[in-house]
Amino acid sequence: MSPRAIRMQPDTVEWQSSYTILSAEFFSDRLKQLNADRLETLRSANEQDPDNLCLAALYLEARARNGENVQDEARELAGKLKEKPANSYSGISPLLNLNRKFKLEDDADESPDEALTQTPQQRSDAESLTKKILSKGYELDNNEINRAIRLWDEVIQNDPQPKLEDKITVASIQAKLDKEKAEQIYKELLEQKDLDPAEKQMLYNFYAKHLFFIKYNSRESTEYHMRAAEIQEESKYRHASITELKKTLTKETSRRNGDADLCKRIKELLARLGIQPETQNQ
Question: pTM for the full model?
Answer without folding.
Answer: 0.59
